[in-house]
Specification:
Number of helices: 15
CATH superfamily of one domain: MetI-like
Structural class: mainly alpha
Distance between the termini: 66 Å
Strand content: under 5%
Shape: flat
Oligomer: single chain
Helix content: over 70%
Number of strands: 2
Strand order of the largest sheet: 1-2
Order of helices and strands: HHHEEHHHHHHHHHHHH
CATH architecture of one domain: Orthogonal Bundle
Length: about 325
């Protein structure tokens, strides 16, 4: 049967190498519409980020190089004098040490309690895991100010304080203790109260990391004769490194921004004040916004440095 070459021409065109690289006009227009739709959908999010993040950040950086006191109408460029004054201030130096102490206490508590709880939850199945996880997550939903009020009743140095009453009834202390008034013990106790609210997030992150480890690796290690401790040290911890890094980063950010619970428990005690507390002193007690901006930029720089370390820990290559 003879074949009309004219009818084959449209099918043959575009089937060769030259035709394959061509884009149909209708498909190109559809792709442009999809791209415009995507930009339109993310535009509100970019606008919110610009208003709530970018603008305050840029304003803080600019303000940190200016003389900006509410009690002094004379304003102007001050160079690095705000930074020099803040970094040489004993209150800010003490807040750096205190924040470091809170970071150690909070991170260790969240890692130990969070990992232990996550391992226990992994052993549960079905509805029991759901119930246990719901109860564990409850402290996470309590605002920091409310949690501070609750812990202030528990840590009350008189007989009405639950902690003192329990320890005295057990014979562990001879008299009621003012835990929050002690320099080192106060930081440890406050750090543990903050960790109580932060452990649920650590549990969720670590449980997700544990669930992401393939079970075949454990089964193969059992064939090779590895015990539980060997599995934990050689398989669980290395493969859990990204989740552990997230917990460490969250502990650092939480410590640097910590203010509400410390303020409720001990006020602006210089021995317990945090970096955020020092910002509050500069801006709202001394009305020196230039110092407050400089302190906030220093805190942001510390957070950024810790974030870079976190990214390096998560994304570096490692052979197992």
């Amino acid at each position: 049967m003879p074949t009309d070459r004219a009818t084959l021409a449209p099918a043959v065109r575009g089937s060769g190498p030259a035709g394959r690289g061509r884009t149909h006009p209708a498909r190109s227009a559809s792709r442009r519409r999809v791209n415009r739709l995507g930009l339109a959908l993310v535009a509100p999010a970019f606008a919110v980020i610009a208003v709530l993040v970018l603008y305050p950040t840029v304003s803080s950086v600019i303000g940190s190089f200016q003389r900006y006191e509410l009690t002094d109408p004379n304003r102007g460029f001050s160079g690095l004098r705000n930074y020099i004054a803040v970094l040489s201030d004993e209150t800010f130096q003490q807040s750096l040490l205190n924040t470091g102490g809170y970071f150690v206490v909070i991170t260790l508590a969240v890692l130990l309690m969070g990992l232990g709880t996550a391992l226990w939850l992994q052993s549960l199945k079905g509805v029991w895991r759901a119930i246990a996880l719901t109860v564990i997550v409850l402290p996470w939903s309590i605002p920091g100010t409310v949690a501070g009020v609750l812990w202030s009743f528990i840590l009350n140095p008189t007989g009405s304080g639950l902690l003192n009453s329990v320890l005295k009834s057990l014979g562990l202390i001879g008299s009621y203790q003012a835990w929050l008034n002690k320099p080192v013990a106060g930081i440890i106790v406050i750090g543990l109260t903050v960790a109580w609210s932060a452990v649920p997030l650590g549990v969720v992150v670590l449980l997700a990391g544990l669930e992401g480890i393939p079970r075949e690796i454990y089964e193969q290690s059992l064939v090779d004769g590895a015990g539980r401790m060997k599995q934990f040290g050689s398989i669980t911890l290395p493969l859990l490194r990204p989740a552990l890094a997230i917990v460490l980063l969250n502990g650092a950010v939480l410590s640097i921004g910590l203010f509400d619970q410390v303020y409720v428990l001990v006020g602006l005690d210089p021995d317990k004040i945090t970096i955020a507390g020092s910002m509050y002193l500069y801006a709202f007690r001394d009305f020196n916004f230039g110092f407050g901006f400089a302190a906030s930029v220093v805190a942001t720089a510390i957070t950024a440095a810790i974030s870079l370390v976190y990214l390096r820990l998560v994304y570096r290559e490692e052979e197992y």
